[in-house]
Every structure is written in structure tokens, then in C-alpha cells.
Amino acid sequence: MENRYANIKIKKNNIRKTVTNSVLYPPILKNAQDIYIITTVGDRMDTLAKKYYGQVSKYWIIAEANAIGKGTLDIPIGTQLRIPKDLFKIQQDFQNLNS
Q1: Exposed (0-12), middle (13-18) or buried (19+): which is 25, by Cβ within 10 Å?
Q2: pTM summary value
Q3: Residue 59: beta bridge partners?
Q4: Scanning 24, 34, 54, 79, which has its CA 20 to 30 A from the CA of 67?
Q5: Is there a contact between 64 and 24 (Cβ–Cβ < 8 Å)?
Q6: Residue 16's Cα: distance from chain center in Å?
Q7: What is the C-alpha to C-alpha distance for residues 64 and 71, in angstroms, rounded to an integer?
């Protein structure tokens, strides 16, 4: 099973406690190639990321593009979402912020 948190780095601090590094997300500007959907029963950010990007770990792209609050993958039924399509630029910006 794919880990939706694969892009979050885990490390041990000086007392050997496991901690996560802070992750910075780039702004995701609108693009003419973006698509828009209306959510239906069972849609979640991770399942939509799997459907449109092939990886559940890219759920954060949908969350950031739509200013959906942190802490949940659930989306109310009937919500219009923008699915960004310029993955190369988004991933490059993400890497630049977090390298």
C-alpha cells in the first residue's frame, strides 16, 4: 500500500525521539490546463490524487490548490475542486522549498 505521507521526512532528534521536519508547500497558481470537478460520495483528497496523479502522496497538491484546511482528507460532497495539471512545476517548486 502506498504511503500518502511519503514526502514528509522523519528524523531522530538529539534524544533519539522520532520527529518530522516541517514541510513547506508552494503556492499553486491557476493554469489553463487545470481541470475542475464536483466531488461525489467517497471522494477524498488522497483517492483523487491517486486517480489524477497516480500517487496518493500528492494529495497535498489538491489541498493547497483549493485552500482546504489541514488535518483532514475528507471533502464535502458537492464541493467544486480544482485539480492542477502542471505537476512538473509544482513538484519542482516543492523540492526547491524543502531541499
Answers
A1: middle
A2: 0.78
A3: none
A4: 54
A5: no
A6: 29
A7: 12
Classify burial at 99, counting beta carbons within 10 Å of its beta carbon; exposed 0-12, middle 13-18, buried 19 or more: exposed
- The tens-digit pLDDT sequence of the chain (99 residues) is 555 555 555 556 677 676 666 888 999 999 999 999 999 999 999 999 999 999 999 999 999 999 886 678 999 999 999 999 999 999 999 999 988
**Which of helix, strand or coil describes residue 99?**
coil
d(CA 41, CA 48): 12
Q: Which of 32, 96, 46 is nearest to 74 (CA)?
A: 46
Residue pair 82/29 in contact by the 8 Å Cβ criterion: no
Q: How far is CA 58 from CA 8, 47, 68, in A?
A: 11, 10, 14
